[in-house]
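Bumping my old thread because nobody answered last time. Still need a sequence for this structure:
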């Protein structure tokens, strides 16, 4: 019917414009990364006539993107493992093992979600400096865990609340300890939530610039995103090399969004549709 067709166009046109606005920066960055310095200066918006991989090789080897990539990989992997472990334990305790003050503790986790890092940045940096954790991998890992743990606890608690408490009671009657219930029952049943939350935590940690820049001032310990931002000043006259660094940093995130978009959507809606 004409009305239904019109309604489809009303939705399709804005979505198409939004998709183009999202895709164009990626295409433009990839196009610039494949240009030579001379071609970019002559015409920055034209399509490249050939694939020039020299800029990517230079960014990966000479500029130090390989080292920054390895730093990010180590820090993000350790941070996400700790976040999932602590978040799943806390979610299990808050949802299935009620104790005095559990509701207040959960509300405290919710309140922590509304506190921007910029508000606590100065005292946080002072505490980390006094503890000798500045410019160390454990310091940055602990910083990520402290920043993103409330979000992880909130989603895991919301998910575990959907599991009937009778399952936990039956496992306890069968002789399982609290740790046994967590390891044998809650962890396997919470796999979908753990996967979704793990993906989101990975994206948060990987894309972070502010915390990493605060905790890792040394050039050797920079993460990938901080390394990319430093290229803008160091290679301000070599935009293709800078674009190559941006492309290297964007590829892992792009792959995650392309292949795990359903899990990301489930993780985003877990706190609002469960619990």
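Sorry it took so long. Here it is:
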């Amino acid at each position: 019917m004409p009305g239904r067709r019109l309604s489809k166009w009303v939705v399709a046109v804005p979505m198409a414009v939004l998709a183009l606005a999202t895709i164009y920066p990626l295409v433009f960055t990839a196009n610039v990364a494949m240009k030579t310095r001379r071609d970019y200066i002559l015409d920055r918006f034209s399509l490249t006539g050939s694939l020039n991989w020299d800029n990517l090789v230079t960014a990966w080897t000479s500029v130090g993107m390989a080292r920054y990539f390895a730093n990010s990989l180590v820090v993000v992997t350790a941070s996400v493992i700790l976040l999932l472990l602590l978040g799943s334990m806390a979610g299990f305790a808050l949802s299935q093992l009620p104790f005095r003050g559990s509701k207040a503790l959960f509300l405290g986790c919710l309140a922590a979600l509304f506190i921007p890092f910029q508000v606590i940045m100065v005292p946080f940096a002072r505490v980390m400096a006094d503890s000798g954790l500045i410019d160390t991998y454990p310091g940055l890992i602990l910083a990520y865990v402290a920043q993103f743990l409330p979000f992880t606890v909130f989603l895991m608690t919301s998910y575990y609340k959907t599991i009937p408490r009778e399952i936990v009671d039956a496992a306890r009657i069968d002789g399982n300890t609290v740790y046994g219930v967590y390891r044998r029952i809650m962890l396997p049943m919470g796999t979908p939530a753990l996967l979704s939350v793990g993906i989101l935590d990975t994206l948060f940690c990987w894309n972070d610039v502010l915390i990493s820049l605060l905790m890792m001032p040394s050039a050797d310990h920079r993460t990938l995103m901080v390394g990319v931002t430093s290229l803008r000043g160091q290679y301000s006259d070599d935009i293709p090399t800078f674009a190559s660094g941006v492309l290297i940093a964007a590829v892992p995130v792009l792959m995650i969004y392309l292949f795990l978009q359903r899990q990301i959507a489930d993780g985003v809606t877990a706190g609002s549709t469960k619990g």
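The two ends are 40 Å apart (CA to CA). Let me know if any region looks off to you.
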